[in-house]
Structure formats: C-alpha cells, structure tokens
Design brief:
Shape: globular
Strand order of the largest sheet: 1-2-4-3-5-6-9-10
Order of helices and strands: EEEHEHEHEHHHEEHEHEHH
Largest sheet: 8 strands, mixed
Mean pLDDT: 90
Number of helices: 10
Helix content: 25-40%
Radius of gyration: 18 Å
Length: 280
C-alpha cells in the first residue's frame, strides 16, 4: 500500500492507494477530516479483492492548505478532485464511496460523468447548505469569525465537540468511537485549514438531477445525525431510481461509530451488484 503525494500543476494532494490489481473503489472524506477516515476499511476492502484509493482534499489532512478563499469553494475542490481521479488512470467503471461533503462530491461526479461509476455508496451525505442544522448554519453563514478563532480553539473543546457528537443514546457519557477513531478525528480537526469553514455555504445541489443517477446506490445514515437533517436523505432516496437505504442508531459518522453494521451493509451491497468483470 502506498501513501504519497500527487502533483497537479502547482499543488500536491496526499493520497493513499492500495497496491494490486483489484477492482478500484475510491473513498472521499468529509469536513474537516482526512483519508484516515477510511483506515478501518482499507485492509478489509483489499482482502475482498478491491483496490481502495483515498485522498486528502485540499485544506485537509496532509494536502496543501491554500491561502486564497476562492480555493475553499465547492467548485474549486471538485475540480481538484476530478484532476486527482483522472490521474489514477482507472480503466472502466469503478465504485465511489463518500461521507458528508465527500458524499456531495461523489453525487456530483456521478451526475456529471455518466458511465464512469457503476456503484455508489453515500454515508450521511451533505447535500446542500440548507440541510445543516440552524445553529451551524448561523456559524457558517458568516465564516470569517469561526475561521479567525479556529487555530486558537483549545484541544479540550475539540474533544468535547467530538464526544458530544458521538455519545451512545443508551450510555450518555460514553462515546461510540473507538479510542483510535476518536484521536484520529481530533488530529484531523487540528491539522485542517481554518478556511475549510468557508466550504459549507457553497454547497448546493439545485443543478443535480437525482433521478438521472441510474446506477445502484446504497444510502447509509445515522438516525441521530446532529449536524444534517435526515429529511434530505429520505428525499434523495425517493428520487434516485436504484437507491437502497440502510439506517443505524449512530450520528453523523456511522461508518466510524457503527463500523461492524456499516461494513456489512457496504460489502453486501458491493457483492449484490458485482459484475462479471470484477475481481471480488
């Protein structure tokens, strides 16, 4: 498995790609996160005959942190993502998985590039700015202030924020994240660019025709998502022709808090929709 940087003009994007000739599966993370969001899935996917590929989006993880605010617009990040995906040189259609903002980018890619993806997995996808809860909407509507204080937020408050978002419904004081996942999320919050708070208000889906996404889709979400309205998930599930749904008791990141359930759902979906040209 290799973990290095890809050069695109004046930028480098940190990537992690499994060695081998398996069926490609591209994994896209949310905000503020990194490719390490998918660490728990890499070995399992590789062992099942897949070739997992992940990238740190601009402003995240070990990828560059541009200074210009123009680079923290959905369109700019999407363009970088497309360049990176093109650089992979994937022959034939591949599987695409996206969580939160990564889910939005995945939907847009499938819609704008028919035929390139043959299976899509969405996990609590961030569809548009209006989907965010009203408290966070107020925060992100004028992101200059949160961007200014972001570098100075004490680690204690970052830990508290992650803990509150991952509490088990039946065990109030206990996070549903493993210690490793918890620390990984803390690290991603601390090393992300403060400018990533400018991204959410640029996320729109008015031009996406969900009914035109005519490939098998698995839509997974945590029923207790404190960040995004789950009504949006129900909406696109009705619009996408071949959409299957799977819900868990988790929150915004069920692939991390409910790993066993979500992993099983994903693998069942992948095998149920495997083609004769796949090496599973």
């Amino acid at each position: 498995m290799k973990n290095h940087e890809m050069f695109h003009g004046y930028k480098h994007l940190n990537e992690k790609i499994c060695e081998g000739q398996g069926s490609p599966i591209v994994l896209l993370h949310g905000i503020p996160s990194s490719l390490e969001e998918w660490n728990a899935y890499f070995n399992d996917l590789a062992a099942a005959g897949f070739k997992p590929c992940a990238v740190d989006l601009p402003g995240h993880g070990n990828s560059p942190k541009p200074v210009s605010l123009e680079k923290y617009h959905e369109d700019a990040i999407y363009l970088e993502l497309v360049h990176w995906m093109d650089s992979l040189g994937i022959e034939g259609a591949f599987t695409l998985v996206g969580h939160s903002f990564g889910g939005h980018l995945a939907i847009r890619y499938v819609f704008e590039n028919p035929g390139k993806v043959d299976r899509l997995v969405l996990i609590n996808p961030f569809l548009n700015f209006e989907q965010i809860n009203w408290i966070n909407r107020l925060l992100y509507y004028n992101p200059a202030l949160p961007a200014a204080i972001y570098p100075f937020v004490p680690a204690f408050f970052i830990r508290l924020f992650i803990w509150l978002g991952s509490m088990q419904s039946d065990k109030f004081f206990q996070s549903s994240l493993s210690k490793m996942e918890f620390e990984s999320m803390v690290c991603d919050y601390q090393r992300g660019s403060p400018q990533v708070v400018y991204i959410p208000r640029t996320v729109r889906d008015e031009e996406i025709i969900y009914s035109a996404i005519d490939i098998p889709v698995l839509l997974i979400w945590g029923k207790k998502d404190p960040t995004l309205s789950t009504a949006g998930f129900d909406r696109i599930a009705r619009l996408i022709p071949q959409c299957e749904t799977f819900t868990v008791k988790g929150g915004h990141y069920p692939h991390r808090t409910n790993y066993g359930e979500v992993k099983t759902a994903i693998f069942d979906f992948l095998h149920a929709h495997s083609g004769s040209n796949r090496s599973e």
